[in-house]
Design goal:
The protein is an alpha/beta fold. The protein has 16 helices and 13 strands. The strands form two sheets. The protein has a seven-stranded parallel beta sheet with strand order 3-2-1-4-5-6-7. Strands 10-9-8-11-12-13 form a six-stranded parallel beta sheet. It is globular.
């Protein structure tokens, strides 16, 4: 058999965990077995240039050109048929009929792949598009989130997911949650941990240096400054640490809709001198390398690739009990505590007295790649 052509469909290439995990997977896939392609709903994002040069990039033009109608159907209607179709779809409990109305029978890629993957699952539009508008012998979805804590249209999932031969989920606990909600799909689900390219992370961590106050413990968090990542709880935790006289600099690296709010909150609580929100950094790894403690105070995760990346530096880790936190089970300098400012502050103080893991924890790729080869090879799925 020749190379397996595999198309990964994703929303865009903004700086985020899903996009970074795709880049690591693209770099790791053995080219003697796979011919990878990427398809974007919107040809945009800071990480576009990081897609390997040998990977063809397609744009789903029908989605990109109709994005205003798809994302704001009542404000961007061309005629009355659009809003009527949208309202009818809403009444039916799934937007699939509206997507069909807007996009028609459009097929943006004129070839058949061995495997097509809706990589940013759960995504109502992308899942539907891959299931109905991509030609492939085998179709898969890839779930990166805990579906009980993020928006997922269960009616659409039950309509669309029978078209997928496999549903990859990035952690054991996230798989258990998905299987409990959709027991009829549980025979399709498999765990596939996000891949971390250790050599690339370490190389990027040396690109620039972070200034440190010698008397301050360096704390790092990397993630979107959004509700699910609990940056507000981080600020409240910083307040408790400062009240205890604990000297620290906490860099919460990322950007999203709570960035300005959290900066103002830090100022109001008097911790803006030690709780820093530097904004989006396409390369956040120097912050990880400089950290004495890594903290992930998330309300919800799927696997949390930033936690996996931070573990490569061996520093003590503090996180909350989200899906995927099982990756630190057995790590001697790691703690899982409740999403509470007091509990987090106490854990951070304890972590400050813990040594680094030596040698740093490695994240293996080979078992996951073998799983993809075994489970996604068309001759195996279609036998």
């Amino acid at each position: 058999m020749g190379k397996i052509s595999i198309l990964f469909c994703i929303n865009h290439m903004n700086t985020g965990g899903v996009e970074k995990s795709l880049l690591a997977l693209l770099r790791t896939l053995p080219r003697d077995r796979f011919e990878p392609h990427v398809a974007l709903m919107r040809h945009s994002g800071e990480l576009l240039g990081d897609i390997p040069a040998d990977v063809p990039v397609h744009t789903l033009r029908s989605i990109e050109q109709n994005w205003p109608r798809l994302s704001a159907p009542l404000r961007c209607a061309r005629d009355i048929s659009g809003p009527l179709s949208y309202l009818l779809a809403k009444a039916r409990g799934t937007l699939t009929h509206y997507y069909g109305h807007v996009l028609g029978a459009a097929r943006d890629i004129d070839r058949c792949f061995d495997i097509a993957v809706s990589y940013q699952g759960p995504s109502e539009l992308l899942d539907w598009y891959v299931a109905t508008r991509i030609d492939a012998r085998v179709k898969c979805s890839w779930i990166h989130f805990e579906v009980s804590k993020c928006f997922i249209n269960r009616r659409t999932t039950r309509l669309v997911y029978p078209a997928f031969e496999r549903v990859f989920i990035v952690s054991d606990s996230a798989k258990a949650i998905f299987d409990n909600i959709f027991p009829e799909l549980s025979d399709k689900t498999r765990v596939f941990h996000n891949i971390v390219n250790a050599d690339e992370v370490r190389r990027l961590s040396r690109e620039y240096e972070i200034k440190k106050r010698p008397e301050a413990v360096q704390i790092c968090t990397v993630g979107r400054v959004a509700w699910l990542k609990a940056p507000d709880i981080a600020v409240l935790t910083a307040k408790k640490l400062k009240e205890q006289g604990f000297a620290f600099d906490w860099h919460f690296v990322g950007s999203d809709n709570m960035l300005d709010e959290c900066r103002k909150m830090a100022g109001k609580l008097g911790v803006d001198d030690c709780m820093h929100f530097p904004g989006l950094k396409p390369n956040p790894y120097p912050y990880m390398a400089a950290a004495d403690i890594y903290v992930q105070p998330s309300r919800s995760e799927g696997y949390c690739i930033t936690l996996a990346e931070a573990r490569l530096f061996g520093m003590p880790v503090v996180c909350t009990p989200f899906s995927g936190s099982e990756q630190i089970d057995g790590q001697s300098n790691a703690q899982i505590v409740s999403l509470d400012p007091g509990a987090l502050a106490e854990a951070i103080v304890r972590a400050a007295a813990m040594p680094r893991v030596q040698p740093p924890v490695e994240v293996s790729n080979i078992d996951d790649i073998n799983l993809l080869i075994e489970l996604c090879s068309p001759e195996n799925i279609l036998e």
